[in-house]
Structures are given as structure tokens and as C-alpha cells.
Amino acid sequence: MKGKPDESRLISFLYGELEGDERKEVEEYLESQPEAREELEDFRHARKTLETFADREVVEPTIIISRDENGPLFSKPFLRALAVAASVTVLMFFSWLLGLNMTMTGQGLYIGFGGPSKTDESSGTERKELTEMVNSAVKEMGDKMEARFNGLENQIGLIRTESGENIDGAVKKAMYISQDQIRDYTQQLNSENKAAIQKLFDMNKEDQDLYLQAMLNDFTDYIEKRREADLEMIDLYFTEFKQDTEVKQLETNQVLASIIDQVSSTSKGELE
Amino acid sequence: MCAETLLDIAMIHSDSTIEKARNGEEKAINSLVGLWYKRIYNYSYRYFLDHDTAMDMTQKTFISMYRNIAGLKDTARFKPWLYRIVANHCHDEDRRAKRGLTISFSRNTGEVEQFEKTADPGIGPDRRLQNDEMGEIVKEALKALSPEQREVVIMKEYEGLKFREIAETLEVSENTVKSRLYYGLNSLKKALKARSITKETTYYEG
Description:
The complex is a heterodimer of chains A (272) and B (206). With 272 residues, chain A is mostly helical. Chain A has helices at residues 7-14, 20-32, 34-50, 77-98, 122-271, and strands spanning 100-105, 108-113. The longest helix of chain A has 150 residues, at 122-271. By secondary structure, chain B is mainly α. Chain B has helices at 6-12, 15-22, 26-48, 51-68, 78-98, 125-144, 147-158, 163-170, 174-194. In chain B, helix 2 crosses helix 3 (26-48) and helix 8 crosses helix 9 (174-194). Chain B contains 9 helices and no strands.
């Protein structure tokens, strides 16, 4: 008998991958070594236990794999920055061509085409006249707007009054009409209901008659069957009673016969 | 352990899909993801016993698959090739975790436990409860294995790989694979015995 098979061979045997002489050798070894057999059985049990750790269900995420049609070149951040820089350069060039200027003065930053305009004392007077013109225009505009608002307000008031009267009249009319309609409808409902209930009563009466008839028939059948059963029972009792009586008669005759025999034999003995 | 389902058959006969994926057909690549997603996820989950890490490993595996499938020479080697990718990602993650570079934001898996199902939905509640308890014990026992033993046990017992395929995946000899499996099962056996779970105390239907 060969020695203990190595782990590799035992595992191959456990998983049914040994054949022929190799398999036979391991089987013989296991037959002669209860401990080794026990170990193998423990391995089988451990494998069986592993089955209790079942697969987990998992939701596969939606993976859409598609290639970047533009190629890798344009995805690089460096080239993107380069494109932005090129755009800014072009913008500045065209700005210079068109004479765009940015000037910082005491009053703020000026951006425009050409330089900032210079102010002198004469412009102060013009400003005052301009201010007065603007004020009067604004005042005139304000007066016109006020008049117009007042006019609109009056119109709205008139419309509201008229609408209110119209609405009230329409509501009253609707209410009046509704009451008549409701009355007619109620009458119609009542007559319909009455006809339906009458029909229901008639139907019920017919059904009730039929049902009653059926019930009576069933009851009659039942009584008849019951009577037959009772008669059979009575007949049976009589038959049994008759049989019992005959048996008792027979027994009585036998007892009497035996008494007579006894008496006869006693009398005969006395006479002799 | 692995049931012969229509999915299994589809996966076995997906050679033409793999061929098309190798040629860059996006629809074929998406099909492969659909076919293998659950298997790769469950491999990763059994390795780390953590849902978020398993999802991470699965994503990385399929990204690697997408990037490298054009270099796959033999479509028949797709399965061990794919498992090699996920095994390598798992090893990398192990190393990262040991260096303390990963932070897990996953809560205790109470919430995602609802997605676990027992293998047989037809079993009764008592059996299901026993299976759930046993499942927890098995998880602890798997976690206690060394990474080398754990990956071999998972590949053989849960993923149904042949010894030759596991050897190819892990780039070791078949004898090494069997030896690791032996010691892995031995450790599992001891862990179960420590919990008084033996063949005498456990009843399996069927």
C-alpha cells in the first residue's frame, strides 16, 4: 500500500478528476485510513456549506461605450486653453484696428472708441438749460399721465357698475331658470321612480308567486318522502317484532316440552 | 455549484461576441459587459465582502477589458483573461488597503442585504433563516482565509473555473492551485467546527 496521497491528489479525487489506477489507489488508501476518510467527508461538508453564500443580485449600470469621434487631440485641456488664448488675441487685434480705448479718469473707467470728451465752463450753462427742459418735459408728461389715469378710473367705475348690474341680472335669471328646471326635473324623477318601483313590485310579486309554488312543491315532496321513510321504518319494526315473537314462542314450547318430559319421567319412576 | 442557465450557455457560446468586441464593435462590448457583470461583481464581493468595493472593482475590470480586448489573441482564453483582470485589480486594492490609502464610505451593509437571495427561492422560511445564518458564518470563514486561498476557493467553488483555468488566471501551476484549495478548505472546515457546524449537526435537503 502506498503512502498518503498529497494534497493535490486528494483535491483531484474530491472533485472527481482522478481516473483509473490513480483513483483506485486513493480509494484503497481511504478505505484503510478512517481519519483520512473523515477529513475528506469534512471537506465535502465544507463545500456544501459554501453553497449557503449565494450570489447577490446586482443591477448592471447602463454603460454606453462609444468612441470619441473627434479623437484624443481635441480633448486635451492644453489645446482648449490655446484656443481661448487665440480668440482673445484676435479680439484685441480687431479692437486696436477699430481704435477701442480704455481710459481711467478720476471719475471712473471709460471704454469706448476715441478719447473721453473734455468739459469746460460753457457746458455748465447748457447743463442747466437742459435740466430745466427735462424737468418741464417730465412735469408735462406727469400731468398728462394723471389726467389719463383719472379718465381710465372713471371708465373702470362705469364698467364695474354696468357689469355688476349685468351679473346680478344674469344670476337672478339663472336662479329663476334653475328653480323651474329643478322642479321639472324633480317631477320627472318622481314619475320615473314611481314607474320603476311599481315595476319592481310587479316583478317581485310574480317572482314571489313562483318561489312560493316551488317551495310548496318541495315541501310536498319532502312530506311524501318522509312518510314513505316512516312507513318503511314501521314495517321493519313489525317484521322484527314478529320474528322476536316467533322465537320466543319457540323457546317457550321447548321449555314446556322439557318440563313435560321431566314430569313424565318423575311420575313413571314413582309408579315403579 | 454553478447552475446551467440560459445565461451560462450564452456565456459559453459568446465566442462570436468576443471576436466582434476584439474588432472594436461597441455593441459586442456592451453585450459582454451584460453577460459577465454579475459574475465579476460576485467574485469581487466574495473577495472583499463589501458592496462598494465590489462595484469599484467591477467597473475597473470592464474598463480594462474595454481598453485591452483588442490585444486578446485567443477568444477561447477570454474567461481566464477576464478573471485575471479582476484578480489583479483585487490584489491592487488589497495592497492599497494595507498601505492605508483607501477610505471606505460604505455603511454597514444592512441596507443592501435586501438584495441577497438564497440560491433556492422555493425553500421555506425556517430553512431560509438557517441558510442566512450559515451564509454569515461562511462569509466570516472566507474573510479569515489568506487572499491566495480565498481567490482559489472563490474561483473553483463559485465561478466554476477548471483547475487549468485558475492556474492560467493566477499564473501558477495546477498543483499550486490544488494545494491552496486544500488548505483553504481545511481552514474552512476548522472554522465551521469551531462553530459546532459539522455534517452531523447540519441537514441539507436534496
